Protein backbone atom coordinates (compact mmCIF):
# COMPACT_ATOMS: atom_id res chain seq x y z
CA UNK A 1 0.00 0.00 0.00
CA UNK A 2 1.53 3.23 -1.11
CA UNK A 3 1.94 6.08 1.26
CA UNK A 4 0.32 9.31 0.23
CA UNK A 5 2.93 12.13 0.39
CA UNK A 6 0.82 14.76 -1.28
CA UNK A 7 3.12 15.07 -4.32
CA UNK A 8 2.48 13.55 -7.69
CA UNK A 9 5.56 11.99 -9.31
CA UNK A 10 6.70 13.48 -12.60
CA UNK A 11 6.39 10.64 -15.07
CA UNK A 12 7.52 12.27 -18.34
CA UNK A 13 10.05 15.07 -17.66
CA UNK A 14 11.02 17.20 -20.65
CA UNK A 15 14.66 16.75 -21.76
CA UNK A 16 17.03 19.77 -21.54
CA UNK A 17 17.53 21.54 -24.85
CA UNK A 18 20.76 20.69 -26.64
CA UNK A 19 22.70 23.32 -28.64
CA UNK A 20 21.91 23.20 -32.29
CA UNK A 21 23.99 24.24 -35.22
CA UNK A 22 22.45 27.68 -35.20
CA UNK A 23 23.64 28.52 -31.67
CA UNK A 24 26.56 30.98 -31.26
CA UNK A 25 29.97 29.43 -30.48
CA UNK A 26 31.66 30.19 -27.21
CA UNK A 27 35.06 31.83 -26.92
CA UNK A 28 36.69 28.43 -26.64
CA UNK A 29 34.89 27.28 -29.78
CA UNK A 30 35.51 30.51 -31.76
CA UNK A 31 36.82 29.67 -35.20
CA UNK A 32 40.37 30.77 -36.00
CA UNK A 33 41.24 32.12 -39.40
CA UNK A 34 42.94 29.53 -41.48
CA UNK A 35 44.55 29.55 -44.84
CA UNK A 36 43.56 27.27 -47.66
CA UNK A 37 46.19 24.77 -46.48
CA UNK A 38 44.61 24.53 -43.05
CA UNK A 39 47.40 26.44 -41.25
CA UNK A 40 46.67 29.59 -39.23
CA UNK A 41 47.40 32.80 -41.02
CA UNK A 42 50.32 34.91 -39.80
CA UNK A 43 49.87 38.66 -40.24
CA UNK A 44 52.44 40.00 -42.67
CA UNK A 45 54.81 42.73 -41.54
CA UNK A 46 54.25 45.88 -43.54
CA UNK A 47 57.13 46.57 -45.89
CA UNK A 48 59.30 49.65 -45.57
CA UNK A 49 58.26 52.48 -47.77
CA UNK A 50 60.78 54.03 -50.10
CA UNK A 51 59.28 57.49 -49.61
CA UNK A 52 61.50 58.52 -46.63
CA UNK A 53 64.63 57.56 -48.55
CA UNK A 54 63.43 59.45 -51.59
CA UNK A 55 62.83 62.56 -49.49
CA UNK A 56 66.28 62.31 -47.87
CA UNK A 57 68.09 61.63 -51.15
CA UNK A 58 68.46 65.31 -52.26
CA UNK A 59 69.89 66.39 -48.91
CA UNK A 60 72.19 63.36 -48.84
CA UNK A 61 73.43 64.11 -52.35
CA UNK A 62 74.18 67.73 -51.45
CA UNK A 63 76.08 66.67 -48.31
CA UNK A 64 78.04 64.11 -50.31
CA UNK A 65 79.07 66.76 -52.82
CA UNK A 66 79.85 69.47 -50.26
CA UNK A 67 81.70 67.24 -47.79
CA UNK A 68 82.72 64.20 -49.76
CA UNK A 69 84.37 65.88 -52.73
CA UNK A 70 86.80 68.04 -50.68
CA UNK A 71 87.82 65.01 -48.63
CA UNK A 72 88.45 62.93 -51.75
CA UNK A 73 90.38 65.79 -53.32
CA UNK A 74 92.42 66.17 -50.12
CA UNK A 75 93.41 62.50 -50.17
CA UNK A 76 94.37 62.72 -53.86
CA UNK A 77 96.61 65.76 -53.26
CA UNK A 78 98.29 64.00 -50.32
CA UNK A 79 99.37 61.22 -52.72
CA UNK A 80 100.86 63.61 -55.30
CA UNK A 81 103.98 65.74 -55.64
CA UNK A 82 101.94 68.91 -55.42
CA UNK A 83 104.25 71.83 -54.82
CA UNK A 84 105.12 75.21 -56.25
CA UNK A 85 106.34 73.66 -59.52
CA UNK A 86 102.97 71.99 -60.05
CA UNK A 87 101.24 75.37 -59.97
CA UNK A 88 103.23 76.53 -63.01
CA UNK A 89 103.63 73.30 -64.95
CA UNK A 90 100.27 71.75 -64.15
CA UNK A 91 101.89 68.33 -63.66
CA UNK A 92 101.25 66.51 -60.40
CA UNK A 93 103.04 63.14 -60.48
CA UNK A 94 101.88 60.39 -58.14
CA UNK A 95 104.35 59.62 -55.38
CA UNK A 96 102.24 57.31 -53.23
CA UNK A 97 102.84 57.57 -49.49
CA UNK A 98 106.00 59.70 -49.78
CA UNK A 99 104.27 62.72 -48.23
CA UNK A 100 103.09 60.63 -45.28
CA UNK A 101 106.59 59.22 -44.77
CA UNK A 102 108.00 62.76 -44.80
CA UNK A 103 105.48 63.84 -42.18
CA UNK A 104 106.15 60.71 -40.10
CA UNK A 105 109.90 61.36 -40.11
CA UNK A 106 109.51 65.04 -39.23
CA UNK A 107 110.77 65.95 -35.77
CA UNK A 108 107.78 68.24 -35.17
CA UNK A 109 105.18 65.46 -35.48
CA UNK A 110 105.21 64.21 -31.87
CA UNK A 111 105.31 67.66 -30.20
CA UNK A 112 102.55 68.95 -32.46
CA UNK A 113 100.36 65.89 -31.82
CA UNK A 114 100.81 66.13 -28.04
CA UNK A 115 100.18 69.87 -28.11
CA UNK A 116 97.05 69.52 -30.23
CA UNK A 117 95.47 66.74 -28.16
CA UNK A 118 96.34 68.39 -24.86
CA UNK A 119 95.02 71.79 -25.93
CA UNK A 120 91.82 70.21 -27.25
CA UNK A 121 91.28 68.31 -23.99
CA UNK A 122 91.82 71.46 -21.92
CA UNK A 123 89.36 73.38 -24.08
CA UNK A 124 86.67 70.67 -23.91
CA UNK A 125 86.95 70.26 -20.14
CA UNK A 126 86.93 74.00 -19.53
CA UNK A 127 83.97 74.56 -21.84
CA UNK A 128 81.86 71.79 -20.30
CA UNK A 129 82.63 72.73 -16.69
CA UNK A 130 82.03 76.45 -17.12
CA UNK A 131 79.01 75.81 -19.34
CA UNK A 132 77.46 73.50 -16.71
CA UNK A 133 78.09 76.01 -13.92
CA UNK A 134 76.52 78.76 -16.02
CA UNK A 135 73.46 76.62 -16.77
CA UNK A 136 73.00 75.79 -13.07
CA UNK A 137 73.33 79.47 -12.21
CA UNK A 138 70.69 80.37 -14.81
CA UNK A 139 68.32 77.80 -13.29
CA UNK A 140 68.74 79.34 -9.85
CA UNK A 141 68.28 82.96 -11.00
CA UNK A 142 65.02 84.83 -11.22
CA UNK A 143 63.31 85.62 -14.53
CA UNK A 144 64.83 89.08 -14.89
CA UNK A 145 68.45 88.14 -14.21
CA UNK A 146 68.06 84.95 -16.25
CA UNK A 147 66.92 86.96 -19.25
CA UNK A 148 69.88 89.34 -18.87
CA UNK A 149 72.34 86.43 -18.70
CA UNK A 150 70.74 84.76 -21.72
CA UNK A 151 70.99 87.94 -23.78
CA UNK A 152 74.64 88.37 -22.74
CA UNK A 153 75.46 84.81 -23.79
CA UNK A 154 73.73 85.23 -27.13
CA UNK A 155 75.57 88.51 -27.75
CA UNK A 156 78.94 86.90 -26.99
CA UNK A 157 78.08 83.95 -29.21
CA UNK A 158 77.02 86.23 -32.08
CA UNK A 159 80.36 88.08 -32.30
CA UNK A 160 82.24 86.98 -35.44
CA UNK A 161 85.24 84.79 -34.84
CA UNK A 162 87.87 87.05 -36.37
CA UNK A 163 86.43 90.22 -34.81
CA UNK A 164 86.43 88.64 -31.34
CA UNK A 165 90.03 87.50 -31.80
CA UNK A 166 91.17 91.00 -32.80
CA UNK A 167 89.43 92.55 -29.79
CA UNK A 168 91.02 89.92 -27.52
CA UNK A 169 94.42 90.70 -29.02
CA UNK A 170 93.95 94.41 -28.25
CA UNK A 171 92.95 93.59 -24.66
CA UNK A 172 96.28 91.78 -24.10
CA UNK A 173 98.40 94.25 -26.06
CA UNK A 174 101.65 94.93 -24.13
CA UNK A 175 101.72 98.74 -24.38
CA UNK A 176 98.10 99.90 -24.10
CA UNK A 177 96.19 96.72 -23.33
CA UNK A 178 93.38 96.91 -20.79
CA UNK A 179 94.42 93.68 -19.04
CA UNK A 180 97.93 94.93 -18.26
CA UNK A 181 96.54 98.26 -17.06
CA UNK A 182 94.02 96.62 -14.73
CA UNK A 183 96.58 94.21 -13.25
CA UNK A 184 99.07 97.05 -12.75
CA UNK A 185 96.49 99.32 -11.09
CA UNK A 186 95.32 96.50 -8.81
CA UNK A 187 98.87 96.31 -7.33
CA UNK A 188 98.26 92.72 -6.30
CA UNK A 189 100.14 90.69 -8.90
CA UNK A 190 102.96 93.17 -9.48
CA UNK A 191 103.82 95.47 -12.36
CA UNK A 192 102.48 94.33 -15.73
CA UNK A 193 103.49 97.31 -17.82
CA UNK A 194 104.86 96.22 -21.21
CA UNK A 195 104.18 92.58 -20.32
CA UNK A 196 103.88 90.50 -23.50
CA UNK A 197 101.48 87.63 -22.88
CA UNK A 198 102.19 86.07 -26.27
CA UNK A 199 105.97 85.86 -25.87
CA UNK A 200 105.82 82.54 -23.97
CA UNK A 201 104.09 79.37 -25.08
CA UNK A 202 102.22 78.69 -21.81
CA UNK A 203 100.83 82.21 -21.38
CA UNK A 204 100.00 82.40 -25.11
CA UNK A 205 98.02 79.17 -24.86
CA UNK A 206 96.33 80.57 -21.75
CA UNK A 207 95.16 83.64 -23.64
CA UNK A 208 93.92 81.56 -26.59
CA UNK A 209 92.25 79.09 -24.19
CA UNK A 210 90.36 81.91 -22.48
CA UNK A 211 89.23 83.30 -25.83
CA UNK A 212 88.03 79.95 -27.24
CA UNK A 213 86.23 78.99 -24.02
CA UNK A 214 84.58 82.42 -23.90
CA UNK A 215 83.27 81.84 -27.42
CA UNK A 216 82.17 78.23 -26.78
CA UNK A 217 80.47 78.54 -23.38
CA UNK A 218 77.27 80.29 -24.62
CA UNK A 219 76.20 77.37 -26.82
CA UNK A 220 76.98 74.77 -24.15
CA UNK A 221 75.35 76.76 -21.34
CA UNK A 222 72.13 77.45 -23.25
CA UNK A 223 71.89 73.83 -24.40
CA UNK A 224 72.40 72.45 -20.90
CA UNK A 225 69.97 74.97 -19.42
CA UNK A 226 67.32 73.81 -21.89
CA UNK A 227 67.92 70.26 -20.64
CA UNK A 228 67.70 71.36 -16.99
CA UNK A 229 64.26 72.85 -17.56
CA UNK A 230 62.97 69.41 -18.59
CA UNK A 231 63.86 67.79 -15.24
CA UNK A 232 60.76 67.69 -12.98
CA UNK A 233 61.15 69.55 -9.68
CA UNK A 234 59.51 66.63 -7.85
CA UNK A 235 62.71 64.61 -8.14
CA UNK A 236 64.75 67.30 -6.38
CA UNK A 237 62.07 67.80 -3.73
CA UNK A 238 61.89 64.07 -2.98
CA UNK A 239 65.67 63.79 -2.79
CA UNK A 240 65.85 66.81 -0.50
CA UNK A 241 63.25 65.28 1.82
CA UNK A 242 65.35 62.12 1.94
CA UNK A 243 68.29 64.21 3.16
CA UNK A 244 70.32 64.29 -0.06
CA UNK A 245 72.73 67.19 -0.33
CA UNK A 246 73.31 69.41 -3.35
CA UNK A 247 76.16 67.31 -4.70
CA UNK A 248 74.17 64.10 -4.28
CA UNK A 249 71.18 65.58 -6.11
CA UNK A 250 73.46 66.76 -8.90
CA UNK A 251 75.16 63.39 -9.23
CA UNK A 252 72.06 61.19 -8.96
CA UNK A 253 69.43 63.32 -10.72
CA UNK A 254 70.98 66.05 -12.88
CA UNK A 255 73.81 64.14 -14.53
CA UNK A 256 71.75 61.06 -15.56
CA UNK A 257 69.05 63.25 -17.07
CA UNK A 258 71.61 65.37 -18.95
CA UNK A 259 73.85 62.48 -20.08
CA UNK A 260 72.65 62.46 -23.74
CA UNK A 261 73.00 66.24 -23.96
CA UNK A 262 76.44 66.16 -22.34
CA UNK A 263 77.60 63.54 -24.83
CA UNK A 264 76.28 65.59 -27.74
CA UNK A 265 77.88 68.88 -26.69
CA UNK A 266 81.04 66.93 -25.83
CA UNK A 267 81.28 65.55 -29.36
CA UNK A 268 80.69 68.96 -30.89
CA UNK A 269 83.24 70.59 -28.56
CA UNK A 270 85.89 68.03 -29.50
CA UNK A 271 85.31 68.69 -33.21
CA UNK A 272 85.33 72.48 -32.83
CA UNK A 273 88.27 72.70 -30.42
CA UNK A 274 90.41 70.23 -32.32
CA UNK A 275 90.14 72.43 -35.42
CA UNK A 276 90.88 75.76 -33.72
CA UNK A 277 92.84 77.81 -36.24
CA UNK A 278 91.78 81.46 -36.51
CA UNK A 279 92.42 82.37 -32.89
CA UNK A 280 95.90 80.84 -32.81
CA UNK A 281 96.95 82.13 -36.22
CA UNK A 282 95.78 85.71 -35.67
CA UNK A 283 97.28 86.02 -32.18
CA UNK A 284 100.51 83.98 -32.33
CA UNK A 285 101.07 82.67 -35.90
CA UNK A 286 102.07 79.42 -34.19
CA UNK A 287 104.83 81.06 -32.14
CA UNK A 288 106.80 81.73 -30.17
CA UNK A 289 109.24 79.29 -31.84
CA UNK A 290 106.40 76.92 -32.82
CA UNK A 291 105.27 76.87 -29.18
CA UNK A 292 101.58 77.16 -30.11
CA UNK A 293 101.68 75.20 -33.37
CA UNK A 294 98.86 72.68 -33.62
CA UNK A 295 98.06 70.30 -36.46
CA UNK A 296 95.96 72.93 -38.23
CA UNK A 297 98.72 75.55 -38.00
CA UNK A 298 101.35 73.02 -39.07
CA UNK A 299 99.33 71.93 -42.10
CA UNK A 300 98.83 75.56 -43.14
CA UNK A 301 102.50 76.50 -42.80
CA UNK A 302 103.64 73.37 -44.65
CA UNK A 303 101.28 74.04 -47.53
CA UNK A 304 101.62 77.80 -47.97
CA UNK A 305 104.79 78.88 -46.21
CA UNK A 306 106.77 75.77 -47.19
CA UNK A 307 105.12 75.47 -50.64
CA UNK A 308 104.52 71.77 -50.07
CA UNK A 309 100.81 71.28 -50.62
CA UNK A 310 101.14 67.51 -50.68
CA UNK A 311 102.61 67.36 -47.18
CA UNK A 312 100.06 69.89 -45.95
CA UNK A 313 97.28 67.70 -47.31
CA UNK A 314 98.86 64.65 -45.67
CA UNK A 315 98.85 66.41 -42.29
CA UNK A 316 95.21 67.36 -42.85
CA UNK A 317 94.32 63.73 -43.58
CA UNK A 318 96.10 62.65 -40.39
CA UNK A 319 94.09 65.28 -38.52
CA UNK A 320 90.83 63.92 -39.90
CA UNK A 321 91.72 60.33 -38.94
CA UNK A 322 92.80 61.39 -35.47
CA UNK A 323 89.62 63.39 -34.97
CA UNK A 324 87.51 60.41 -36.03
CA UNK A 325 89.32 58.19 -33.54
CA UNK A 326 88.72 60.74 -30.78
CA UNK A 327 85.00 61.09 -31.49
CA UNK A 328 84.04 57.49 -32.27
CA UNK A 329 83.90 56.64 -28.55
CA UNK A 330 81.54 59.51 -27.80
CA UNK A 331 79.37 58.68 -30.81
CA UNK A 332 78.98 55.08 -29.62
CA UNK A 333 78.09 56.26 -26.12
CA UNK A 334 75.55 58.69 -27.57
CA UNK A 335 73.91 55.95 -29.63
CA UNK A 336 73.77 53.61 -26.63
CA UNK A 337 72.24 56.31 -24.43
CA UNK A 338 69.61 56.94 -27.10
CA UNK A 339 68.73 53.25 -27.23
CA UNK A 340 68.34 53.11 -23.46
CA UNK A 341 65.76 55.93 -23.43
TrEMBL record:
It is found in: Cell membrane. Residues 113-330 form the ABC transmembrane type-1 domain. Its main location: membrane. InterPro entries: MetI-like, MetI-like_sf, UgpAE/MalFG_permease. Signal peptide: none annotated. Keywords: Cell membrane, Membrane, Transmembrane, Transmembrane helix, Transport. The chain crosses the membrane at residues 50-72, 84-104, 116-136, 148-171, 207-228, 249-272, 309-331. Residues 1-44 are annotated as: Disordered. Residues 19-40 have a biased composition (Low complexity). It comes from the Bacteria. It is a multi-pass membrane protein. Belongs to the binding-protein-dependent transport system permease family. This is Carbohydrate ABC transporter permease. The lineage of its organism: Bacteria, Bacillati, Actinomycetota, Actinomycetes, Kitasatosporales.
Amino acid sequence: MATDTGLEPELNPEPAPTPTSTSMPTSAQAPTPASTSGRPRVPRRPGRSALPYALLAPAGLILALVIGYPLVRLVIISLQDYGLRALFTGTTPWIGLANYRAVWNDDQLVPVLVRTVGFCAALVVGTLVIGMLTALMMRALGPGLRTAVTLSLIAAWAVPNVAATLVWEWLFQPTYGVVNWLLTEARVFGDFQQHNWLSQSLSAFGVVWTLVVWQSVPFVALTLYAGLTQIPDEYYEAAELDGAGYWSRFRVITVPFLRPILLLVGIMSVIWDFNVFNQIWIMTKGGPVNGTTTLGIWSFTKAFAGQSYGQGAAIAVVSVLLLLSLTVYYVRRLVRSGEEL
